[in-house]
């Protein structure tokens, strides 16, 4: 009904919630395709300092940076994994996020969304083209983060399967993306 009224839809989704599994990216992709969302946004869960989520993840040992490090939490155009997923290994999470965004943000997808947009197709095209670039940066940043983790903390990580929330990383690991 919304699209039939000429209203475009921006759908913003968070991947990395406690209930997410390796099935989640395919479910998100299918939902976005089936509903015809004009501009999808796929975000990684970011525990904001001072929130109940941040405190809970800190108490569970799932933050991937020291709780008191005010520089670890920052916004960037790219994405950075700041907390360990509950049901997915770090490596599988990063690769599944990268695969999802690589499938969603292509020139073909941007053109399809533009042609199907109920209104303002030029804006829909510009958003989707910008997101191709932005999510490309996100994939690069996340893969660099994963490579650094493998190089510096391989003895603490289980990259092949999901681990419990407390045994993947030492609590003092500070991860930052240097662009």
- Say how many strands there are: 2
The total tally of domains equals 1
Termini separation = 42 Å
Decide which structural class fits the backbone.
mainly alpha
Morphology call: elongated
* Count of alpha/pi helices: 5
Radius of gyration: 17 Å
Rounded mean pLDDT is 85
The main pleated sheet reads as:
2 strands, parallel
Approximate helicity band: 40-55%
Strand order of the largest sheet: 1-2
Order of helices and strands: EHEHHHH
| Residue fraction in strands | 5-15%
- Low-confidence stretches are 159-179
Question: Could you characterize the architecture of this molecule?
Answer:
The protein has helices spanning 24-35, 52-59, 90-104, 107-116, 121-153; strands at residues 10-15, 39-44. It has 179 residues and is mainly alpha-helical. It has one domain (3-156). Strands 1-2 form a two-stranded parallel ribbon. α1 packs parallel to α3 and α3 packs antiparallel against α5. It is elongated. It starts with 9 loop residues before the first strand and ends in a 26-residue tail after the last helix. Mean pLDDT is 85; it is low at 159-179. Keywords: Iron, Iron-sulfur, Metal-binding, S-adenosyl-L-methionine. Its cofactor is [4Fe-4S] cluster.
């Amino acid at each position: 009904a919304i699209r039939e009224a000429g209203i475009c839809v921006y759908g913003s989704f968070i991947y990395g919630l406690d209930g997410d599994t390796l099935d989640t990216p395919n479910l998100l992709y299918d939902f976005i395709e089936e509903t015809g969302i004009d501009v999808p946004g796929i975000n990684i869960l970011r525990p904001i300092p001072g929130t109940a989520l941040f405190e809970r993840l800190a108490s569970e040992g799932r933050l991937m940076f020291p709780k008191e490090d005010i520089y670890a939490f920052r916004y960037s155009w790219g994405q950075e994994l700041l907390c360990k997923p509950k049901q997915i290994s770090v490596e599988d999470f990063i690769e599944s996020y990268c695969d999802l965004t690589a499938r969603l943000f292509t020139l073909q997808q941007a053109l399809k969304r533009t042609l199907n947009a109920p209104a303002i197709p030029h804006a829909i095209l510009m958003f989707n083209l910008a997101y191709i670039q932005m999510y490309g940066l996100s994939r690069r940043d996340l893969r660099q983060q994963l490579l650094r983790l493998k190089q510096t903390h391989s003895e603490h990580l289980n990259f092949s399967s999901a681990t419990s929330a407390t045994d993947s990383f030492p609590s003092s690991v500070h991860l930052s993306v240097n662009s």
